[in-house]
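Justification of resources, computational component.

The compute hours requested in this renewal are based largely on the per-chain cost of generating structure records like the one below. Each record pairs the submitted sequence with a full structure-token output. That output is archived, and it is also reused by downstream analysis tasks.
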Amino acid sequence: MIGPRFALALLAAITISTPSIAWPQSIVAVPQRQLSYQLTEGQNLNAFFREGDVAAHLLLRSGRDPRILVAFPAGNSGVGLWFDHLDCDVSWRLDRPPESITVEDDEGRPLYGIIARATVTAPRLSVRQAVLSNIRFLRDYQAVGAFPPEVVAPMRRRGQTLSFRRDRLDGAPGYQLTVRVLRGRLTREGIVASRDGVIGLEIVAVSGDPPLTPLDGAELLTDRAAPDQAARDTLTFLSFREKFLAGSWRFNTYFGRDTLMSLRLLMPVLQPAAIEAGLGSVLARLAPTGEVAHEEGLSEFALIEHQRHGGAVADAATLDYGMIDDDFMLAPVMANYLLDSSEGRARAANYLDRMVVSESDPGSRASVGALLVANLRFVVEQARPFAANPRPLTLVSIRPGRMSGDWRDSDEGLGRGRFAYDVNAVLVPAALTAADRLLNAGVLDRYLAATDRAALAEAGAMASIWRTRAPPLFNVSLPVGEARAAITRYAESLGVGADAALASIRGRPLTFHALSLDDRGAPIPILHSDEGFALLFGAPSPAHLDMAVAATMRPFPAGLLTDAGLLVANPAFAGPEVQARFTRNHYHGAVIWSWQQATLAAGYEHQLARTDLPAATRRRLVAAQTALWRVITESRTLQSSELWSWDYRDGRFFPVPFGADGADVDESNAAQLWSTVYLSVQPPR
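The structure output for this chain reads:
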């Protein structure tokens, strides 16, 4: 790999002059390209590139609202160019895939990025808006059409070239996007196609944010990983020594929950150094209280956040602790590594002694062991009220003033509930169990104060109370007649068949666990996929397993199973008002998330490894496992995507990329970290 110093040394020999650039630029010549692949999903043509100091995701959006967008993992930065709405569909083609380029700004500082060429079949393209800044601002513009006025970049027109460039707000190296017209012509009204109706463009996109350090090859995966090249490419693009990225283009940085769930599911095929890099990124962002950070704000986003809150002009990371599920994920994942894997057990002592530098305060550092104890202390304190008085309102609630608190982090994701099933019925008892195991294993002895030891000594008994008393609070039971009527009405409203769903409802009441409880502690009757957490992190009773399998694996709209995949929510039993907020166009509605299918598949495998289950329960688990893997296999082309929706025709459900429909509230990431977990989660032999 060639770094910036060698790149600059090549300037004299490799400088390319184009009228679109006002300062020297050079393409960095590297003998072997590290990573380059393309993926078309719905209306988005995605090209991923990583080489040396350059990592970039080029997205070309077709349809009637075309755009060019380049996301950089460095600083979670990006450049985007949105064009005006057209009355006809346009289609992009990538003629020259991205190559690395290093550009010097006016002060001679290097900016790293890509150069690519593309054509689009469009009569004209008129610029609506360019945004050059942190991806979170590009994400906001795409979603709601707004971004901070401080980051506006003026448009410059020179010959056949449009360019946008600006320094970062603190004067640090900034961002540039240049579009040179190769076919067609640039006019005052926009870019006009050539006579054959085609526009050809050369795209140069660069960012000055400091590059990350790639983590790949033998450093990343063991030889036990599945030979799935698409998943390997995605995981490689998202993996760095500093952190794993949650997904590209929209979440091109650290997310605590995404990191922890991905580590848990990928752990059997990850190298120890990769596992420890991921865990280290979580610990480096831990709050002093022991809470796990949900998302980090970097670079220009951090600058603006500090300024808006009266702070100094600084780019130190801002950290969001608004989620609650990730707080209870760290302990089970740590225990899984330190106690259940041979590599973790062998490395535990040295690893726990390793010093971690705080991401938000580089002058602060603590050992892995001390940071883990801080989190365990927080877990026990959060769990104490319910353990002492087990009733709905003493469960762990999402934070006041928020609509979300777990992985279903859209405003509608929890059905407007306050107490999430996955957090309270699964993750809290799992964290307490992990705390008890870690204490009894003795691996934390040197990091425990007397008060810590006394607190953790309570964790085992508290876990037992949570395991037995929390899940029943989410129970929903509907008489057969009421359930069948609700299924029939809901199917008619969707225009889907209901025969198989109705046939699955036999003589007994339909029972399932609610997605959440409302602020009075009453169940919100939305059927959901979060039973996968219970199967992966716990050892439910046979009765719990039988109910969970039946509820999730019934055909939709009685359960969650469709030909397109396993849905993450089914509001059939919650009434029309709730159903309108949980459609196939909603981010956490009646849609399919790749990693949720993988979590359930891993959960089935985990439960079938038990030796204490009745034969009838095992048969149901095996049948459910077989049915789940059938639909996972049939939707393999979308497996590395974040999520997808469905269409229904000729009596079958068909997968549809999320974001392809104009009614979809957002679009899916083409590369998602926790969708790569099938490198580890594999069908039973």
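The chain has three domains: 4-207, 217-227+250-469, 474-679. Confidence is low (pLDDT under 50) at residues 1-32.
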